[in-house]
What we know:
- By secondary structure, this protein is of the alpha/beta class.
- The protein is built from 18 helices and 14 strands.
- The strands form 3 sheets. It has a 6-stranded parallel β-sheet, with helices on both faces. The chain has a 6-stranded parallel β-sheet with strand order 11-10-9-12-13-14. A two-stranded parallel ribbon has the order 7-8.
- Nicotinamide-adenine-dinucleotide binds next to helix 1 and helix 5.
Amino acid sequence: MRIAMIGTGYVGLVSGACFSEFGVSVTCVDKDAGKIERLMRGEIPIFEPGLDQLVAGNAAAGRLSFTTDLKAAVNGADAVFIAVGTPSRRGDGHADLSYVFAAASEIAEALAQGGNDPPGDRTVVVTKSTVPVGTGRRVERILRNTLPPSRFDVASNPEFLREGSAIQDFMRPDRVVIGTESEHARTVLGALYRPLYLLETPMVFTSLETAELIKYAANAFLATKITFINEMADLCEAVGADVHDVARGIGLDGRIGRKFLHAGPGFGGSCFPKDCQALVRSAELAETPLSVVETVLRVNEARKRQMADRIIAACGGEVAGKTLAVLGLTFKPNTDDMRDSPSLAILPVLHAAGARVRAFDPEGMAEAKKLMPELEYCGDAYQTMQGADALILITEWNEFRALDLDRVKALMRQPLVIDLRNIYQPDAMIAAGFTYHSIGRPISQGGSEAMTETPAGLRVIA
Ligand code: NAD
């Protein structure tokens, strides 16, 4: 089988590479000539663990290629996937579908010019981008303006991979969702995903509209889970409970599940904020407001702002003239993606309050420098801490989980750690001589006041 992937970003490149690993012949297309040139030279334009080997292996085997020539890629393909961006439209929060519709028009023209190759052939045009309900129908109309219905089928196949574990997520998904009314599309997509049948991956066949909504509903639900545990963490702090134990205690209930119950600085990234926004806007248009999701968005935005206040409070109410060491800038570990990262909401506030902010991230700094040029960027974690008045952990990269605490203490002016991801144990940090703040866990300040004696129900006083 032969497919074309239109858009070679986080989703298009990973999906394309994984399909080629399944044995499919894949051409990845992007209009960004620089990106395609790098890929053709064997460079990977994003950081995603394992992607370099997967791309190199399949390119060498002749199953994976890259081009800016959409027409050449599309003609003769059994399926063409649209995997372009659907960012928030500036101003109103609706999904910006201009890239999807532009891609659909280009596909239509390319197929029309190409003629039937081979005669009688049909091409399945599959939307992989996250798009609001009704988009698939609009893609269908765009194609129908140029092509006879006998030449194409449309389908929705939303992607659920997560950056940082994208290959594993694509290769071993919890389910594959395929929305289409076409028997031919079902057959083609079923064949493309055949290797997953061996793993007994559930295939959810639905209508276009349902498939589109499944993706938004999943993201909104996960964002709600995160926001729920974040608010629980605040309550834990107020009453002397431990959010880790609360999360474990509720997560062991099979109806709830343990995942996405890690309290932190608020969700970010390239999907949850913009997808929740777009879902809320779609629901408003349909006159069925989603007040739960609206609240999640509001609470999450406020939370990111509160994190800066929390840091300032931990620094004694003032950061002017202080040096802050920051570890982690990306919205999650194992990615270089800075889109909507909580660090973007927190660090400019600290800088504006007069702090000198010295930061390190293993993969996100090239992008962070463009977005926050006012910060100082360091070569490694320990460099940030030189003479620092506080150490702030924003992203839980593995390399930050086992810092040499004696070295950290020796480098810092003040042994103050503010851990927004709860990657250290309060007792251990206090024993190591740090003043330690984390999220939703009983903490004693200064090391001597053991919180184990604090009665539940009383506010923990620093
Ligand atoms: P991205 O910005 O990394 O990549 C999109 C690519 O599409 C860019 O390289 C851009 O140059 C290219 N492009 C745009 N228009 C084009 C055209 N007409 N022809 C060829 N190339 C074109 O975006 P992404 O993160 O890969 O997201 C893509 C879609 O997948 C979005 O709808 C997103 O919501 C969804 N999604 C993303 C993730 C994720 O973790 N990033 C996960 C699941 C779903």
